[in-house]
């Protein structure tokens, strides 16, 4: 029951309908699953960040594809936030996240909102580097905003 309450509380981009399936996973595996999703997000963020900094050539198709990749995997995060994962040694999710699920969820929604803005702008005619830069930076800042409060290190 507790699991269900926590998952429902997360909402937004992290929402999941896979509650029943979640109960099939072991806590250790859920943390690996969660960290793997973050690694996928990180790889996309690396390409987007390099684009924003001008380290690689701006390609509107690549920006859009990387943003869509993020959206496709981020939606799986919700089913990994199961309270039993709090006891997993390798998890870097701070107790603060569990104590303040509204705050944590708010950071998740801010990330989801920034990502949706990037996806929307990348679908507009004439999408260029000038439009991409600030939208990418907003997404990357939303990652850091959550880590500052809710991730160890
Ligand atoms: C709502 C909060 C939140 C947002 C938004 C968020 N993260 Fe994280 N991130 C976490 C937490 C919590 C962990 C620790 C997970 C664990 O170890 O259980 C984490 C872990 C990570 C890790 C380490 C994974 C590993 O192998 O241990 C990377 C890399 C990462 N995040 C990248 C990103 C990137 C890139 C973004 C934005 C595109 C992002 N995160 C957005 C909360 C967030």
CATH topology: Four Helix Bundle (Hemerythrin (Met), subunit A)
Spans of at least 5 consecutive residues with low confidence:
1-12
Number of strands: 0
What is the terminal separation in angstroms? 31 Å
Would you identify the CATH H-level superfamily?
Cytochrome c/b562
Gist?
With 153 residues, the protein is mostly helical.
Please tell me about this protein's structure.
- Mean pLDDT is 90; it is low at 1-12.
- The protein has a single domain (2-150), classed as Up-down Bundle (Four Helix Bundle (Hemerythrin (Met), subunit A)).
- It contains seven helices and no strands.
- It has 153 residues and is an all-alpha fold.
- The radius of gyration is 16 Å and the shape is elongated.
- The protein has helices at 2-10, 19-22, 27-52, 60-74, 95-99, 101-122, 129-150.
- Bound molecules: heme C.
- The site of heme C has 23 residues, from helix 3, helix 6 and helix 7.
Strand and helix map with partners:
Layout (H helix, E strand, L loop, with lengths): L1 H9 L8 H4 L4 H26 L7 H15 L20 H5 L1 H22 L6 H22 L3
The structure holds heme C (HEC).
Heme C (HEC) binds next to helix 3, helix 6 and helix 7.
Key features?
153 residues; elongated; disordered N terminus; mainly alpha; binds heme C; Four Helix Bundle (Hemerythrin (Met), subunit A); 67% helix
């Amino acid at each position: 029951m507790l699991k269900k309450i926590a998952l429902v509380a997360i909402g937004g981009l992290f929402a999941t309908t896979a509650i029943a399936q979640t109960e099939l996973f072991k806590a250790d595996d859920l943390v690996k699953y969660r960290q793997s999703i973050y690694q996928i997000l990180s790889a996309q963020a690396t390409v987007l960040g390099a684009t924003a900094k001008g380290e690689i050539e701006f390609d509107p198709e690549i920006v859009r594809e990387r943003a869509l990749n993020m959206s496709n995997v981020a939606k799986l995060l919700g089913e990994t936030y199961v309270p039993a994962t709090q006891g997993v040694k390798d998890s870097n999710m701070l107790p603060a996240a569990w104590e303040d699920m509204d705050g944590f969820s708010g950071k998740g929604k801010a990330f989801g909102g920034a990502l949706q803005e990037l996806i929307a702008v990348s679908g507009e005619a004439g999408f260029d580097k000038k439009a991409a830069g600030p939208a990418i930076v907003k997404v990357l800042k939303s990652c850091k905003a959550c880590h500052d409060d809710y991730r160890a290190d």
